[in-house]
Structures are given as structure tokens and as C-alpha cells.
Amino acid sequence: MAAKLDGGAYLTSFVDAILEKLSPILEEDDSFLERNFLLGRLEKTLYEAGPVLDDAEQKQFTNKKVKKWLLDLQDALYKADDLVDELSTKAAIPTTLRDPGISSSCSSLVDSYIEGSGDMEKIVGTLESVVAKKNHHRLKECAKVDMSSWRTPSTSLVVSSDIFGRDEDKEKIIKLLISEHENVVQHDTKTRHLSYDVNDNNSVPKMLEACESSSHVRTLFQIKADLYGEHKEGIDPCRLLEQLKRLRVLSFTSFKIDILPDSIGGLIHLRYLDLSGTPIVTLPESMSNLYNLQTLKLRRCRGLKKLPSNMQNLVNLRHLDIKGTDLKEMPKNMSKLKDLQFLSFYIVGKHEENGLGELGELTHLHGSLRIEKLENVKNSGEASNARMDEKIHLNALYLEWSWSLFEESEVCEKDVLEKLRPHKDLKELSIEGYRSTMFPDWVGQSSYHNMTELKLIGCRNCWVLPSLGQLPSLERLVIEEFDKVKKIGGSFYKGDATHQHQETPFRSLKYLSFSHMDWWEEWESYECDDDDDAPFPKLETLEIWHCPKLRGDLPTFLPSLKELYIRGCEELGCYLPRAPILRSLRIDGKQEARMRELPLSMLRTLWVNGEQQVEYVFEAMTHTQPTSLIHLHISECSSAISFPGDSLPPSLQQLRINNCKNVEFPMQNQQHESLTSLTIKNSCDSLTSLPAFPSLLSLRIERCENLTSLELSQSQSLRYLWIAECPKLKNIIRLPASLIRLFIIKCPLLGEGIERKDPHIWPSISHIPGIYFLCTNSLLVEYMDKELCIYFNFVVSGRNFNLEWTTLRLLLLHHPLTHPNLRPFITFLGVALACLLAHGPCWFARDESEQTWTKPN
Questions:
Q1: 365 — pLDDT class (breaks 50, 70, 90)
Q2: Of 328, 363, 384, which closes a domain?
Q3: Do 189 and 296 have their domain in common?
Q4: What is the torsion angle, in degrees rounded to the nearest 10, for the CA atoms of residue 154, residue 160, residue 163 and residue 165?
Q5: CA-CA distance, 825 to 549, in Å (whole number)?
Q6: CA angle 557, 561, 565 (to 5 degrees)
Q7: In a domain, 314, yes or no
Q8: What pTM, to 2 d.p., does this model score?
Q9: What pLDDT does 140 receive?
Q10: What gap in Å lies between CA 626 and CA 264, rounded to an integer?
Q11: Rounded distance, CA 547 to CA 520, Å?
């Protein structure tokens, strides 16, 4: 935890910020300064401090007294800023949000606050005293730099390229923040910034201890954040918030907090609140009082179903992240959050005050926006009120109708989608669950010159795809679940009628995916004079998944294609595209499609399924050596075939053979130097032993019925070995010292040898730190780092296992049946047993819940 940093930096900007907040208060009326002379003194003192700060910040590195003065000044300025921030907040809160009975006049409101404040005299006096000492240090006044020529940022987001200088200082700060040394934890009354490491069990208690004595803390945030972790230790947010009234930044990321106290509404200075990853289920209505809040992060608050009803009061909110929540609807009047720059998604409600039209005023939205439940839009006029074409800072737009509603709506959704037309510079567009039969003309217009990604998903009533071929920058296209599309024809390649000259269709497309098109039968070829004019000149990946009625035709020539994946297209019998630089080919299913010429010399990954496909590949390998092949997966072939030349391709690194019982495994004596991963599953019935694999890292063998022994002395790199359901396997000998995990599942002959500690088997496995052994349906034995665990999945017999488990530390029972033979078995386990855990009914459990048993001394 880091609690304190050297002070003094950037105080000039700090003073300017205080004066900027103070100015509207002082300018309310001419008599204000006369009535509240303390604020006049504060303004005068700030103006006196400003001119010498640049000189002081330079001298602090060589003059300890100046550094001490800057630290004192910083502390006094923090307190003054807290005061002014509170005054300006109370003055700025709209009249409608103030308590009844309080004067609507800004100056009167501030007057009453000042009269009731006993600290103001002390705060101003302290600042005056510190500033008066500036003359003791002979500080020079510096001319104020004219900042008017600097570009004003259009968003509150930091652009990294605009940050420069003081790199050494930045490095020191970063090291300090992530340091784990005790001497970093220095907290006193001047501490303003606290951080904690959620992965360090000692960090959070130290942070809580620091909060006890540091009531002026402004930031409490997390470092080394684990986005998907959860801190084991709970905290009392009520107590914490009671102590830290001046917080500007608060992060409870991943803490076990399911509710926030109402007192959070009293943190009027708060600008940034992060509750991401917490199990919070509700937010107090008092959060609507956080007038200054600019950032609210609720990402992955999966139990959160509702936001405070008066969210519209957070008029300074700029960033609202609600991705990963379970919100059912949006609060009313979100249109009042006119400064909002980021909104992860918006749920269209059924009422006007939380309907789609509320987005109309949010013209400053940046980044991406998802709009859900568009089926609640009543008419195209409501969609028009959203003014989507005016949101020029959006890069990505996701439009979603609920998938549970497939019937066509009474509202013409084509008209609704027409009015949701985004601005022309949009880069990504996704339309999901759209229920009309056709798309409006703007979808696919070439005027969307920056669009790089388009997804059309679950548009089940559409019978024709929009014309997309003339989108000039489109790189990724995903089309899924168009139930009524039977043919993709020439219109798919064309664009709108605004340009008579048609460019090469899909000239920038790199990734194309069709999936779950249940009635798609034909992909019509595009007519062109030569290959140079053919569509998809830059296509690198083509995926066609689960299109069971597709017969053809596929594009004939794809010069840039590197990956081709076809699965679940049983009727596809045409030739696959010519692809001279193809690197990865996967054909999975019963389809008969094949390539005119398999580019084996270029392929790196080959995955084929089915008898005809496997035979075709093996036949091709007899003519062309696959010199670049790294991954080979063959499955579902009953033919009696063998690898060409009785050897594996020399470049092969990963081989998987699944359900190919008659494939002959190559047993030539040559060593396969490149192979690192081998899986044989229900295949190679003739296999009785394995050849040498000196580079093998992972070996998985399942249901090899005739495998009798396994000797892997030459596989000195092997780390993981999985053996399952090999009924004739009796011996595993000379396993390498490199092995760290061994799985033996339902190998009865081998299991018997292990149970009796067969001298031919036991020396080969006793050195392995992690062993998982299921010899019957009743026992799974685990060695984990030399501390043996036994896990009962379920007990079917009272069999006595004569093993001297002298290192047994933990016994786990998962829903065991009550059985009298368990008691002597547990007693036999040895003196090292430290803990027994049970889940479910068993003879030593007191109830149905998980119980802990500790062995008596």
C-alpha cells in the first residue's frame, strides 16, 4: 500500500483550479464580498501564492526548507479546496434538487453555509500564515504563462501522447505505488492519497488502519487490479465512508460488498466511483445526491438489477459503465445527463421517460454504444428522436432486439431501423434480432467509408441479405441465423444505386463468417471477366458453420485466403475455392466438398473429418510431401489406411487421431523430432506400443483397446500424460523425470498393479508430483506436490486398498453413500492425515452441509 507521495508538484495549476471554482461564487452579487470577507481574504491569499510557485517547485529539490514550505502549502490548499468545492457544489445544485425551505438564491445559500461553518476562519487563517512565509525563502515571482493558445481537449479522457516531461518522477511514483515494503506505509493527517493491493492480504488492513487517522483522504483506489478476482476479506463501507468525507476517488473493485450505505450520498466531493466486480445488488437512492460525480463504474456487478431512480440528478456524469450487470431497465430522464461521454449500453423502456427518445440529448457520447430491447420502440418517430446521426463521436453501434421474440412486430421495424441510421464515420455496426423481412437502404451504403466491421445476427425473418459488397473499408463480416435466406445472389455483391461505377466487391474484406443458416441452399457465383476482378481479393479467413442445406457454389478463387473452416454442411459437394497460400484447412462433418488441388506444401494446420476427407488427404500426401504441416487432426474414419511411407510428416508438432480405429499408426524406427503433442482417442486398434518421440510434451491415449505396455524413456521432455480406458494396458515403465502430471483413468490391469505397488510399475511413477488415479468408479487418488489427496466420487463397495499413504494430508468425500467399511479405511490412512472434508450424507457428518473433520491427537 502506498499512502504518501512527495508534495509540491503542479501547485500552480491547483491554485488556478481553486480560483476558478471560487469565481462564480464571488460574482453572484456586488455585496457578497462585503458580507463574507473571509472569502475575499481567501481569494487575495491565493493570488499572492500563485506567482512564486513555479520558482518554489524548482528550488524544492535543492532546498529542504522550500520543500517543507511547499508541503505545508499543499496541505493548506487541499483544505481550502475542500471548502470551496463544498461551497461551489451547494451553490451549483439546481433549485429543484435543494431541500424545501432553503432560499433559491445562490448567495443566500452560501451565506447560510458560511454562518454555520466553524472551520472557515481556521482554514483561511492557516493558508494566510503559510503564504506569508514565502518571503522568508526569497522566492521569485514568475510571469504567468498564457494558456489561451493551448488546444482545449474535447473529452475528459487523457491522451497519452499529450503527457510529457518528468519521466524520472513518474517512474518513482509508479515504483512507490506498487512497492510492498513496510516503509511505504506512511500516513498522517496530511495524507491525501491511499492505495491498496487487492491481491495482498496485508494491504487492505493497513489501508483501513490508515483511514482511521487520515480523514482528509481524497483518493482510495486499487493497484495491481485483478479484473476477475474477488478480495476474500470484507470491509465495512459504512464505517469507512463515515471517516472519509472528502473523497474524490473511491474504488471498491472486487470487494465483497453487496450493499452501500445511504451515507455515500454525503460524499459531495466524489468525482470517481468504481464498484466493478462487487456482488452489489442495489444502489442507495442517496447516490443521486453525488452532484460532482463524473465517473461511475459498475462493470461485472452481475447481481445489480436497478439503478437509482433519480440518476438524472447526476448532471456532471461523463462515464457510466454498466456492462456485465443484470439491469432490466434504465432510470427515467437520462436525457438530462447532457455531458455523458461514455455509456456502455442503454435498455429501451416501455415509457416515454425511459424510452429510446431519451438518447436524443446525449450528443457527446464517445466510443461504443449498445441499445437493447428495441422491440419496445412504439414508432419510427421515437427512433428519430434518438438522433443517432448526430452522435458523431461514436465508433461502434450495437442495435439489439430481444431474441425471444421471433414473430414480426406490429411496429414496422424497417422504419425504426431507418431512423436509427448512424453517422457516416461509424466504424463498427451490429444488428441482432431484427424482425423485419428486409433491411433499409442505408445498411451497406458505400457512403459508410470508414466501416470496418459489420455483424448481422439472428434476423430470422429476413429473406434477402442487404447489398454489402461496396462498403470500401469493410474488413470483418459476420452473418448468423438468417432462417429464411435460401440464396445469396448478385445483389449481395452490389452497393446502393448512388454510384454507377461498381468497384471490386468486398475489396477490403479479410474475415467472412456464415453460420446457422438453416435454409441457405445456394451461393451464386459472381460473374467477372478474369480473376483480377473477382470479389474478396483480400479475404484471409472464410468460415461456414452449420449450413446443412448449402450445396454450392463457393467463390472459385481466393488469392489471399489463409484459413478455411467448414463444419456441419452435409450437402456441400462442390469444389472448394482455389487458395494458393492456404495455411489452415478444417473440414468437419459429412460433406463431400474438396479442393481441386490441396496446397500441402503451404498448409500448417489440417483438420479433416469423415471417411472420404481422410482418405483424400492421405492420398494427396502420397504425392506431395507436407513440408510445413504443424497441426494434423483426423477423425471419424473407419477405412484401413496408413500414413504415407509409414512415417509422420517431418514438420508435424501436434497430432490428434479420433475415432479412426483402422488407421495404422506409423511405427518406423525413425525418431519424430518435431512432435510435441499427441492424442490418440478410440483409434489405431493395431497399436500395441509407441515409437520414440524425443520432443513430446503432452501425450493423451484413450480407449486404445490393444495397447498393452507403454515405455517412454526416450521422451525426456514429457510433462503431461493422460491414459484412459485402455483395458489391456498392464505396464507403464521408465517414465521420464520431466513428468509433472499423470492421469490414469479406468485402466483395470494397470490399476491393480498400482494398488499392490508392483515393483515394475511403482518406481516409474513414484517421483511424479501430481498423480490423478481413478482405477474403478469408486476411487480417485491425487498426489499434489507430494501431499497426497484422496477423492471419492461415490462409494460402491467397501474395498480395502492396501496402500501405505504416509503422506496423506487431505481426504475429500463428495456425496458418499453411508457404508460401514469407510470407518476402518479412514482409520488406516495413516498418521499424516490432517483434514477430512465431506459434502453430502456420510456417517461422520452432522448435517447435509459441508463439514470439516480434524483428526484427534
A1: very high
A2: 328
A3: yes
A4: -170
A5: 59
A6: 105
A7: yes
A8: 0.80
A9: 83
A10: 66
A11: 7
pLDDT (tens digit, 9 = 90+) per residue, 250-297?
Answer: 888 877 888 888 989 989 999 999 999 989 999 999 999 999 999 999
Q: What is the pLDDT of residues 522-553, one digit of tens each?
A: 999 887 777 777 899 999 999 999 999 998 78
Task: Please write the tens of the pLDDT for every residue from 291-317.
Answer: 999 999 999 999 999 999 999 999 999
Q: Specify the residue for cell string 484427534.
A: 856
Sign of torsion, CA 137 140 141 142?
negative
Highest-pLDDT range among 128-142, 290-304, 400-414, 741-755: 290-304
| Helices (runs of H) and strands (runs of E) counted in the chain | 16, 36
DSSP state of 843: T
Phi-psi region of 198 (alpha: psi -120 to 50; beta: other; left: phi over 0): alpha
Whole-angstrom distance, CA of residue 373 vs CA of residue 361: 20
DSSP secondary structure letter of residue 414: H
Query: Collapsing DSSP states into helix, strand and coil, what is residue 771?
Result: strand
**What is the distance between the alpha carbons of residues 585 and 564, in angstroms, rounded to a whole number?**
5
Instruction: Identify whether the C-beta of residue 636 lies closer than 8 Å to the C-beta of residue 659.
Output: yes
Report pLDDT for 545: 95
Positions of E strands within 644-697: 654-658, 677-681
Residue 395 domain flag: yes
How many Cα atoms occupy the beta-carbon half-sphere of 613 within 13 Å?
30
Residues 450, 582: one domain? yes
Nearest to 225 by CA among 158, 176, 261, 274: 274
Query: Which cell goes with 605?
Result: 494446420
DSSP letters for 585-628: EEEESS---EESS--TTT-SEEEEESHHHHHHHHHHHHHS--TT
Q: Looking at the DSSP assignment, which residues form a beta bridge with residue 429?
A: 397, 454
* Contact partners, residue 179, CB within 8 Å, separation at least 6: 2
Tell me: do 455 and 411 sit in the same domain.
no
Q: What phi-psi label fits residue 115: left (phi over 0), alpha (psi between -120 and 50 degrees) or beta?
A: alpha
Residues 500 and 585 in one domain: yes
Q: Do 451 and 429 meet the contact criterion of CB atoms below 8 Å apart? A: yes
Q: How far apart are CA 222 and CA 270, in angstroms?
A: 16
Residue 367 — pLDDT band, cuts 50, 70, 90? very high
Percent of the chain with pLDDT over 90: 41
Average pLDDT taken over every residue of the chain: 79
Q: Which amino acid is at 56?
A: A
pLDDT given at position 362:
97
Are residues 374 and 256 both part of a single domain?
no
239-277 in b/e burial notation, b at 16+ Cβ within 10 A?
ebbeebbbbbbbbbbbbebeebbebbbebbbbbbbbbbb
Instruction: Give the pLDDT of residue 153.
Output: 43
Site of grid cell 515504483: 175
Dist CA 3 CA 192 (whole Å):
8
CA gap 805, 136 in Å, rounded = 78
Tell me if 401 is assigned to some domain. Answer: yes
What per-residue confidence (pLDDT) applies to 5?
A: 36
Compute the distance between CA of residue 2 and CA of residue 350 in angstroms, rounded to an integer.
Answer: 48
Among 798, 197, 316, 801, residue whose Cα is nearest residue 790: 801
pLDDT score recorded for residue 204: 56
Q: What's 197's DSSP letter?
A: E
Q: Give 731: exposed, middle or buried? Use CB within 10 Å, 0-12, 13-18, 19+.
A: middle
Integer Cα distance of 67 and 8 in angstroms: 7
Q: What is the mean pLDDT of residues 793-807?
A: 39
**Number of Cα atoms under 13 Å in the Cβ half of residue 356:** 27
Look at the chain and report how many structural domains it folds into. 5
Distance from C-alpha of 13 to C-alpha of 30, rounded to nearest angstrom: 27
In this predicted structure, the answer to whether residue 114 has a pLDDT above a threshold of 70 is no
Q: Is residue 9 over pLDDT 90? A: no
Bond into 532 cis (ω within 30): no
Is residue 483 domain-shared with residue 407, that is, in the same domain? no
Phi, psi of 197 (to 5 degrees): -105, 115
